[in-house]
Amino acid sequence: MPSLPSRLSLERLCFAFFGSFLFFSAIFCSYTRVTNLFHLAAACFLVMLWRRPLFRQDLWANPRLKTGLVMAALYLGYYSLSNLWTTNPLNIESTLKHGLYMLCFLSMAVAMLNGRYRTQIYLAIGVGFTMLALFLMGIDYQNIMSNRLMSLQSPGPQNVIDVGGYFAVGVLLSLMVFRDTGRHAVLVLTLVLLVALMLTQSRGPLIALGLSLLMTSHLGIFTRRNMLVGGLLLAILVAGFALTGMGAVMVERFEELAVQVYLRLSIWHHSLHLISQAPFFGHGFDAQLHFTNYSGEFITTTHSLYLGALLKGGIAGFITMLLLVGYGLRCALRCVREERRPEAAMFLFMLIFYLSQGMFNIGNPGEFWYLFWFPYAVMMTNPRSTPALLNPAQG
Fold first, then answer.
1. What is the DSSP letter of 370?
2. pLDDT digits (tens, 9 = 90+) for 35-60
3. C-alpha to C-alpha distance for 246 and 196, rounded to whole angstroms
4. How far is it, in rounded angstroms, from Cα 1 to Cα 21?
5. How far apart are CA 148 and CA 288, in angstroms?
6. Looking at residue 292, what DSSP letter applies?
7. How do the residues of the chain divide into helix, strand and coil, expressed in percent and rounded to 5?
8. Structure pTM?
């Protein structure tokens, strides 16, 4: 049996690597050196599973995690198999490897969030997103305000919509930390991320964030005092935008929303045409769009995760997605009953966000690990921290 110091150092080492991976990956998206931190964290986590029987038993005794991993494994396994009916069936090895990475990521995230490190994990991601926001507002603000694709200067996601998704998730994480700690300084992160979200060229993440918060809000928060405070903050934001000229920019963006809707509809129409050609099992994992839209733009993605799932996996694959999403929604409803409304809002945000964004969510660490898989992991956590899960006294 390992000594107490070795268990302590192994637990802390796993958290150090995993927390560092979450922090740096929030800034440097898809960088190989950052991904190596995940590999180190996974290695420590697997050693903990091997060397600590009680930790292993407690982890698998968690019914939320067990059911969630089964749903994720069905989804990941089916789409890995879908490589077999593509032009490159040998890609199944890579997809299976990525699927195992994600199952390990989910297990580690739930173990850490159910243990003593919940606040630190949320802060690591939230601070990382805030640093990315400050960098982009200071160095690349003109690009995030006017362009769809990020410049080479940006270390974050290539698409400004995903950048906006980062900021929205960061807002929710900071609200969770504020609720759990009561530290008003955390609201500085909320403010910075919210301003950065409003500056981005994309409207989708802002709309999804507003809808998710509205759908999970308790009627009790709409008191006269809260309404007055909210109105005052809104007035300050409106005044700031008006004085800086950003108000006109925001109005113009929402006026362009109708144009973007028609562009999306044309892409979805073409996607559905391709889906109808292989409705049951799809075109396989590597399927993409290859057409020029009426706007003259060459389109390769479905601009909807759900249509991407249908294109690649057909009805059979979409059923596995519905099982995964359905279980997440069930957990989100449970979070509402447990008064964990920001957690539920995060999952709903993800579902709304991916209605009009994304192609797929299986691969090496990238933006979708934060925008899809991390909210799903949060749904599998317990309502209160349970330090016993990562308690060094277990042997």
1. I
2. 999 999 999 999 999 988 888 888 88
3. 12
4. 29
5. 20
6. E
7. 75, 0, 25
8. 0.88
